[in-house]
Amino acid sequence: MFLNYLIVALRNLRKQPGFTAIKVLSLSLGLICSILVLMHVQYTNSYDKHFDNHENIYRVVTSLTSTSGQRIDASLIAEGIFNPLLQDYGQIEEAAKINQGSGLFVYGDVSATNEYWWVTPEFLKIFTFDFIQGDSETALVEPNTVVLTQSTARKYFGPEDPMGKVLTIDNLADLRVTGVIRDLPPNTHIDIEIMIGSPTGQQIAGENFMNSTAWAGFGGTMAYVVIPDPASVEAIRADFENFVERNVPDTQRDFVQRIDITLDLEPLADLQLSPRQGFAVADYSRTLVLGGLVTFAALILLSSCINFANLSLAQMQQRGKETGVRKTLGATRNDLLTQFLVESMLLTLLALVVALPVIYLAIGPYNALTGTAFTFSSMFGSSQAFIITLFVLVTGFLSGLVPALRMSRFAPTDAISGKRDGGRSSRLVRSGLTVIQFTFAVILVILAIGISVQVRYLNEIDIGFNRSNLVVIDAMYNPRNPEQFNYDALVDELRQHPGITTLGKAQSAPPNNGGFNPWRHSSQPIEQAQAVSHLGVDENYVDALQLQILAGRNFSQDFPADYMPNGQPDSEQTFGILITPAAVEKFGLGSVDEAIDEVLIINDLNFRVVGVVNDFRLSGGMEDTMRSTAILRATRQPMNALLVRIDPLQRTSALNHIDTVWARHRPDAPINREFYEQTFNQQIYEETNSINRAAQFAAFITIVIAALGLYALAFYSTERRTKEIGVRKVLGASARSIVELLTLDFIKPVLLACVLASGLAYLATSYYFQQFSAPANLSLWVFVLVIAGTIILSILTVAAQCFRTATSDPVKSLRSE
């Protein structure tokens, strides 16, 4: 029986190659997009599952309320919490701490800056790295030891055996290589190249390194624990509130309660899409991108299925007699339903065959766009192949279900006698499908335009300072080793070039902001302190960024009291600060002129407002306004970020001078310099490119599929009304009036779709804009032009078919009827 269904299906598909080709094409487009995203989702779900015991590993995370009322979810842990955690919860089988750093590593003539991780020795017990050389049990127990990945070992030692070789870090310590691990796969949240044991850090920085007693101090440390029993995990979570209450030291209790510190356990499987990022405002960009891709793929696939249904319903007129004859000869409704679903499944499998080579070619660009690393062969793994096969079968079933139900319900007498339209309900179904399809298309087009507008706005926004011709240099100054090079001589010699107009210094390089700590006005009690981003700079910082002084003055060497010393500051002194109008408003200081000479306090240090500069955003519209730098502190401390304003007419000469001076003072380290504008644009690109390109592609594909669906409706409508058109022409109707009549039928559902889509698209774009602290606005003209373009496209899509029917010979059409 099934073979018979298959033969009949193949004959029907061969009889109408045009419709078959359009069905296969539309389904292929939907399958290509949805399978790529499905593989993306599976790849994301595979993160960190190569580690043994991954299901029992958790990260201890923290949430707290800033003094400004902002709830912050951090991936970090205050180091004072770690030891009490192990003492109170015996269910924790293993526990480890890690902290990221960056330094200059040297071996012989090879020197390079590298990110690395400080780790407690237990870290190698929790995460089962593949040791090629060395022993995970002992590799990092002793001080001055280091573990490298394979590629990092080749980077520094070339073909030499790295075991036992010595790497020097920042001229502070000689690290002996005690282990080499295989390079980690890309699907892990831990990007490790170098691991240094915490005993080494304690030898360099003291016993409190990564072992502070502070319960509200966040120095970048993260903690991982192994808890084998899921019930114990829930019990620990439920007890965390009591844990804080019974263990927090009395000297820290008031502050910890005021900021409402809470703890949680985050499963390893959830870390890749976790919005927690250090001690900062949550980052939802990865979830937003993946959610957007899933939504786009679902809409494209649904549009493909709707298109398939429209084309199948258009064929009802040609297959009405077949259905009637089959029913007359004894076929049941279930037989017909099976027949039509077999055809649907067959077409879906053909669409998959067409889609596979396109998927093979598209995986590379898709991985580059989304930062993933899955391969075509991963489709054919046991679990992936089963899921994709099931997904394709469900797609085929859903695509053919509505047409199969409609055609199997025909009464044999109606079908044979020619009453094949299906009535008002059938016309409403087809129109409804068209409305849904064009609603999706218009939403995606407007959303794609909205995303492009937001990206352009982020690139063009006034960020409060001149971002052109500003070079940012990392001085690589290490306060633990101040004799590593002559910092002042380097800075002074860099200034000795006519093409360098200004050189300012800052503790943090843009687009990064400074610290984020509670400040208060001198008249306010400590509990009214408000978290503000502040940055240590020198007197040339304002000129380097070309900030505008709105009131007061800049820092000046003529006022030594402005500057914090290079060492422990005196709490009896009052230092100088510059603040922004945002800070003036935040602390209720009145006007910018009235703010001058007001005193702000952080911890026990006093700062007098000597000037007010305009608001500025070091990260542009990508940063949360709460994190924008609002206070500049003057300091004499050496600072890593050197901000060099260069004359564009002497750009090449100035850059050559910078490189020459650097090579003279830092021959041990390659220079790290970038134009701020490049960094700024790259940041925007990385945050927005994936969702921007995906939206544009989804809009284009959905419009194409919708146009094919509209063509199907036009074909069906004109075929159904052939006799009516012939009668109209015999009675004197012109071809133009007939085209207008036919076209009106198509414009109605498209217009309704445009109205529905406008409201939904407004909500979608508004939600997207809200993800940025500098949201763009979408002009009303965008909606008008998209609607107009959609209507014009609809008319052009059906015009040819309508015109052909309207200009046909009425004698032939009436005779055929």
> Hey, roughly how much beta strand do the residues contain?
15-25%
User: How many strands appear in the DSSP assignment?
Assistant: 22
Computed structural class: alpha+beta
> How is the largest sheet built, in terms of strand order?
3-4-9-6-8-7
Mind explaining what this structure looks like?
InterPro entries: ABC3_permease_C (IPR003838), MacB_PCD (IPR025857), Macrolide_Exporter_MacB (IPR050250). This is ABC transporter permease. The protein has 23 helices and 22 strands. It has 817 residues and is α+β, with helices and mostly antiparallel strands. Among the domains are: 1-47 and 278-420, no CATH class; 54-270, no CATH class. A hairpin with an 8-residue loop joins strand 14 and strand 15 (530-537).
Characteristic key phrases:
817 residues, alpha+beta, 6-stranded mixed barrel, 6-stranded mixed β-barrel, 23 helices, 22 strands, 17% strand
Task: Produce the secondary structure layout.
Layout: H1 2-15, H2 17-45, E1 57-65, E2 71-74, H3 79-88, E3 94-107, E4 110-119, H4 123-126, E5 131-134, E6 145-149, H5 150-157, E7 166-169, E8 173-181, E9 194-197, H6 198-205, E10 221-226, H7 230-247, H8 250-258, E11 262-267, H9 285-314, H10 316-328, H11 333-370, H12 382-408, H13 412-417, H14 423-460, E12 470-474, H15 487-494, E13 500-506, E14 515-521, E15 530-537, H16 541-545, E16 549-552, E17 574-579, H17 581-586, E18 599-602, E19 605-613, E20 629-634, E21 641-646, H18 651-665, E22 673-675, H19 676-720, H20 722-730, H21 735-769, H22 780-806, H23 810-816
Parallel strand pairs: 4-9, 6-8, 15-20, 17-19
Antiparallel strand pairs: 1-2, 1-10, 1-11, 3-4, 3-7, 3-10, 5-8, 6-9, 7-8, 12-21, 12-22, 13-21, 14-15, 14-18, 16-19, 17-20, 18-19
Helix pairs in contact: 1-11, 2-9, 2-11, 2-19, 9-12, 9-14, 9-19, 11-12, 14-19, 14-21, 14-22, 15-18, 19-22, 20-23, 21-22
